Amino acid sequence: MSVVIKGASILGQKTADVYVEDGVIREIGVSTGSTSGSDHSASEVIEADGLVLLPGLVDLHTHLREPGREDAETVLTGSQAAAAGGFTSVLAMANTNPVTDTAEAAERVLDLGREAGLVDVQPVGAVTKGLAGEELAELGLMARSRARVRVFSDDGKCVGDARVMRRALEYVKAFGGIISQHSQDPSLAPHASCCHEGPISGDLGLPGWPGVAEDVIVARDVMLARHTGSRVHVAHVSTAGSVEVIRWAKSQAKKDGTWEVTAEVTPHHLLLTTDLLRGYDPTYKVNPPLRPAEDVEALRAALADGTIDAVATDHAPHARHDKEHAFVDAAFGMLGLETALSVVGTVMVESGLLDWAGVARVMSTAPAAIAGLTGHGREIAVGEPANLALVDPSAAYVVDRNDSLSLARNNPWHGRTLTGRVVGTWLRGKRTFGA
Ligand SMILES: [Zn+2]
Fold first, then answer.
1. Domains of the chain
2. What is the C-alpha to C-alpha distance for residues 15 and 284, in angstroms, rounded to an integer?
3. Catalytic residue annotation
4. To the nearest 10°, the Cα dihedral for 9, 13, 16, 20?
5. Which whole-number Å values give the CA distances from 278 to 95, 206, 327, in the listed order?
6. For the segment 370-426, what is each residue's pLDDT rounded down to a tens digit?
7. For the whole model, what pTM was predicted?
8. Nearest to 377 by CA among 366, 389, 386
9. Phi-psi region for residue 130, left (φ > 0), alpha (ψ -120 to 50) or beta?
10. Residues near ligand 1 ion, CB 5 Å cutoff
11. What is the CA(299)–ligand 1 centre distance, in A?
């Protein structure tokens, strides 16, 4: 099985023909237009003039809902949505039913991913049993299982108890693991909190979720990471305050060289703001909530300057009957896999904040490194696995939620025009998306 992708601009830079055989990049030749510079007769030829070739994207934060909520998403449909978004690997969050808090549960998710065969589904393990925040889950057994779990998170819930967080950080250090924290101080922002605390939450009469409830947990956790000499990852950063803390922590960690802080931002926190809640549309209910424009600006700048390492979708599919409620009663979360690259293209590339090499860094190289995925986020170079995403950088399109491959329809981008679109995805040389 072989394919040649002809005339694409690699990372938006040099133009070349990329020849793939048996899942590996075999040759990268000077593009000579319609006749290939190489003598290879590939079984498939992709004309890619004007397109950008990126390493396959890696999502640190996906909710696939299986097992337990197969009416919202399955590993198969989530994998299809991921492939359509240019992803070749996704980390599946642990808040399923049952929770991924044992080696068996992690292996089950891994196997479901392999059966689907469209992206490498890497299970995230729960930090605590049943996400209850009290007793550590089987971290070591999950790490030693076939699933080789390295990222642990109680996402959806914060590991609120500092002692539990400290123990978890100490534990995962032994095998190079990392704790991905959903930073939400439960005493400052209890579960019902659903709107950024400010004038709009007051106007709408919605329970406020103050930015400081995130900031204080980020501050606590970076100090715990330093104290334990371990690695903490801040999931879905949403405030300018967190950005300041992370910037400081990274400068300290760099000096010490013994601990590490990394962070991700979602596409929706890079573009959408609190004002959207004025219509009480539960599509815009997400945790952490959409923030004011000042926060959004700080997040964009932090992603551009490397303070925030990665973009992660927090793809959170929900069945209609869980989302179509009064705002306070609706489920938290929005779809993200299929549109992530387009949002980053629209927000970061069109504005000049990132070039395509920068997009490859924040959506592939950095997330793969954080998760310890050695087969992803690689250079586009001879001998490397052919995990690739082909992007039309100038394609502008109106998002239609009914075009989705996800089972769910809670798509906050419906009706918006985005620029930059994935047109093809390959997982180890196998076409997983695109005609
Ligand atoms: Zn979360």
1. 2-52+384-433 (2.30.40.10), 56-371 (3.20.20.140)
2. 40
3. 314
4. -70
5. 29, 10, 11
6. 999 999 999 999 999 999 999 999 999 999 999 999 999 999 999 999 999 999 999
7. 0.97
8. 366
9. left
10. 155, 182
11. 17
